[in-house]
Amino acid sequence: MAIKIRHLSTRFALLLAAAAILPLVGYGLVSILSLRRGTHDSVVNGNVNVATRAAKEIGRYISTNAELLKAVGADLQDTGLDTTQQDRVLKNYVLQFPEFREITLFDESGNALVTSRIGSAHVDVPRAARLALHGVAMSPIRVDRDLLPTTTFAIHLKRLNEPAGWLAGEFSLEEMWRMVDQIRIGGHGYAMVVAAEGELIAHGNPDKKALVARAVNMSRNPLVQAARAEGDRAPVWREYTDDDGRTQLGVAASIDPLGWLVIVEQPTGEAFASATKLQRQLFVTISLALALMVTVGYLFGRSFIRPILTLQRATQQVAAGQLDTRVQIDTADEFAALGEAFNTMANRLIELQEDVKRQERHAIFGRVAAGLVHDLSHPIQNIGNASRLLLRDDSDQETREMFRRTVEREIASLKRFMDDLRNLVKPKPIERFAMDVNGAVAEIFESMRPEGERNGITVEAQYAAGPLVMDGDRFALGRVFRNLITNAIQATAPGGRVTITTARIGDRVEISISDTGSGIPPERLSAIFEDFVTTKRRGLGLGLAISKRIVEQLDGTITVDSAVGQGTSFALRFPARQDQTVQAEAS
Fold it and tell me: In this structure, which of 18, 128, 272, 352 has its CB flanked by the most CB atoms within 10 Å?
């Protein structure tokens, strides 16, 4: 019965549906940004409208009363009224318009002629007035004894175009305070009025009215500075931190033609509370939709991902050497075929591994056998020849002594060769004792110098001044020194030089063995410390590998620097011992 294969394209289509997450997230971000920008602009525009309307109302309020004083002046000049009639006119105006606490008529010299007050006049002619409002001079704002804002309006009267005195009125701005108090934005938004020179003359926040009494200057307020910089342009807004450390959304509108500013402040947290709430709701909605989409994508994509994960785990196990790993995928699609291919590959890898093992065993055995034959044939042949010559009766004593030394030398070579093989299979344990490095090196130097002389090579030693003490195995390190010096002698042509140097570098003891031999090619330099790697025609390539193990067992390091045709230098470094007791013991 043919199995109906469900192609991966069907499942991949479901994954594409899950890919709608990205457009959803993008849409959500754009919506949140648009909502934030729109609500921000809406809040700012609303506060701007409030400040603008308040500025117009206050400007109209001031201008209307200034025009009222001009009307009083028109009733008094060029009418021929006597003093009694003028007094009645002024009193009637004050009674009809309570914003004017007092209206007084002065002659050109500043002497009061008629006043609406009972008694003497209190108001003065504001000769240092800062503003001229439609022909009416206006003095700076001040706070009276009742802690209410007050100013003085004044008109220079003329009769037949000749100066005829002054008409001054003390005008209470209490009604302006009430207008400012009625301006509320939300629960904590208030308005304030700032004079042209920066004095605070009204504040809607009851807790801040004391600032008006102290005539606090608002020139350093960021919004006031921005409004002054803009001049007569459209209202400005800023977000800034006030003196209480709260972030405020401030809007400033100019009161024409006074040059005053109406400022509406509202905490940003309150101003954008509705926008923040809408953003939170939109974010929750998008998050829920995103979670739903992820859940749906996970449920539909889990069956697609499971075979991939199974193959991934199996591949990692095979890479770790578990070649008996197999997979079972029952999806009836391309993954099932991939699983079968994986199992076939694993079976084939086992076969190839067995073939490689057999080939490696053959290669190693052949290499070891060839090395044994090569390295043992020469010493055995030399020993045999020397033994036969020793049996001859015609040999003199000097010749017999030469043959004896030859036998001893070759037997020593065989013993060293056998020690290398034994140490490769079962390394000897390293025992640590305090040892004098100069003394240990001197022993090896004295024993190796004759061999260098037989080969026409100068072997010299340079010792550090003072004792060099370290924790080490004198016999194990002697083997390392002997092996490195032997290699240096073998790599150096007659007439060359081998130098052994000891030194103290910081907290380390350094022993370097340098030669002027043929050097090591760069491509072979990185592998010289591996087993069965050698640059010589003879040997199994175990000497440097064993030397490196001994050095590392003693917490040391061994490095090599070589140049073809110039020579090679090995450097051994070990932790030094510094206490005098140990130095004396080592000596």
Answer: 272
Cα separation, 250 vs 51, whole angstroms: 10
429-586 CATH: 3.30.565.10
Tokens for 379?
């010493």
Among 577, 567, 528, 563, which residue's Cα sits nearest to residue 548? Answer: 528
Average pLDDT estimate for 14-24: 62
Q: Report whether pLDDT(308) > 80.
A: no
pLDDT of residue 457: 92
DSSP-assigned letters across all residues of 494-530: TT-EEEEEEEEETTEEEEEEEE-S----HHHHTTTTS
**DSSP per position, 161-194:** TEEEEEEEEEEE-HHHHHHHHT-EETTTEEEEEE
Alpha-carbon gap, residue 269 to 67, rounded angstroms: 43
Q: 174-183, 190-199, 565-574: which has the highest mean pLDDT?
A: 565-574
pLDDT at 409 over 70: no
Helix count (H) and strand count (E) of the chain?
15, 20
> Residue 72: what pLDDT?
86
Residues whose CB falls within 8 Å of the CB of residue 269, separated by 6 or more in sequence, listed in order: 247, 276
The ranges assigned to domains in the chain are: 22-283, 429-586
Instruction: Report which of 40, 37, 52, 42 is spatially closest to residue 235, judged by C-alpha positions.
Output: 52
DSSP state for residue 437 in the 8-state scheme = H
Q: Give the burial class of 251: count Cβ atoms within 10 A of its Cβ; 0-12 exposed, 13-18 middle, 19 or more buried.
A: buried
Q: What's domain 22-283's superfamily in CATH?
A: PAS domain (3.30.450.20)
Phi-psi region of 514 (alpha: psi -120 to 50; beta: other; left: phi over 0): beta
What letter represents residue 476's amino acid?
Answer: A
- Residue-level pLDDT at 14: 56
Q: Do domains 22-283 and 429-586 have the same CATH topology?
A: no
Long-range CB contacts (within 8 A, 24+) of 491-494:
491/515, 491/517, 491/518, 491/519, 491/535, 491/536, 491/568, 492/455, 492/457, 492/516, 492/517, 492/518, 492/567, 493/517, 493/518, 494/455, 494/456, 494/457
* Neighbour tally for 221: CB within 10 Å: 25
Q: Give the three-class secondary structure for 121.
A: coil
Burial tier of 194 (Cβ tally within 10 Å: 0-12, 13-18, 19+): buried
